[in-house]
Structure to design on (282 residues):
């Protein structure tokens, strides 16, 4: 009942509002600016997560999980062994080359004379 | 957190241990070569897969060759000294300088011939296949390798280093 009465009282206003058309135009790039403000507001609200916190969380919660711990250990063991193998190969090659040169120098005195 | 840190530390320790184990295993032979009494001969033994008897014979040949080689080097050094003295006094090529140059060239040629004889002797002591490899190695890595003659031109060769005239 109250609503009906209210509507009857506001009928002229309603007619006026229906007929009314805004004359003012929107400022240039209005829509883009609105989106930018929304974006800025959302960024400001997002909590900042530091690398240390991520790492700490990873160590405390994820690393102890058996699957991840096994994978982590396996990767590190393989990496260590691979680097060791590579270094050993280089060292073997270096020693072999050095001793070959030393043998050549021992039988060929011209080798030493050629050294810079 | 404690458990996570323990796993983290174990991973690092494991990686270091794996590195050390593989590195030490991989360098067993070179370390043994370097520790031997005559590393260069030990290298020869290893490189050309020599047996004990072959290695012993080659070590004897090596020991017999070195004093002769040193004697020839001493002769060349002496001739170098005499030639330097003659050149310091001379204003042109004198018969004495020519004689010294010839004599030095002769000793150098003898030196190279004796070296080649030694290489052949060593190669014959090895199994035939290894002997061939040894000769090829000696030819590539000693003064027996041909030197490209150049008068300053930029000659590039994969097989020899250029000897440039001054």
């Amino acid at each position: 009942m109250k609503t009906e009465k209210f509507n009857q009282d506001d009928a002229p206003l309603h007619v006026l509002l229906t007929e009314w058309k805004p004359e003012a135009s929107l400022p240039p790039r209005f829509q883009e600016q609105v989106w930018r403000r929304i974006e800025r507001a959302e960024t400001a609200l997002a909590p900042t997560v530091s690398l240390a916190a991520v790492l700490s969380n990873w160590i405390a919660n994820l690393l102890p999980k058996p699957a991840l711990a096994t994978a982590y250990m396996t990767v590190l063991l393989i990496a260590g062994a691979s680097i060791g193998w590579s270094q050993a190969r280089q060292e073997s090659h270096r020693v072999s080359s050095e001793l070959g040169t030393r043998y050549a120098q021992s039988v060929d005195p011209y080798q030493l004379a050629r050294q810079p | 957190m404690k458990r996570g840190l323990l796993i983290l530390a174990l991973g690092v320790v494991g990686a270091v241990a794996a590195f050390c184990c593989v590195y030490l295993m991989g360098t067993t032979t070179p370390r043994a070569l370097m520790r031997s009494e005559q590393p260069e001969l030990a290298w020869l033994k290893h490189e050309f897969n020599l047996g004990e008897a072959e290695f012993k014979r080659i070590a004897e040949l090596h020991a017999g060759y070195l004093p002769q080689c040193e004697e020839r080097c001493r002769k060349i050094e002496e001739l170098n000294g005499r030639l330097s003295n003659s050149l310091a006094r001379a204003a042109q090529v004198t018969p004495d300088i020519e004689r010294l140059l010839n004599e030095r060239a002769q000793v150098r040629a003898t030196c190279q011939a004796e070296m080649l004889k030694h290489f052949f002797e060593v190669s014959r002591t090895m199994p035939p296949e290894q002997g061939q490899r040894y000769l090829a190695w000696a030819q590539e890595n000693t003064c027996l390798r041909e030197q490209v003659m150049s008068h300053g031109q930029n000659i590039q060769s994969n097989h020899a280093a250029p000897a440039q005239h001054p």
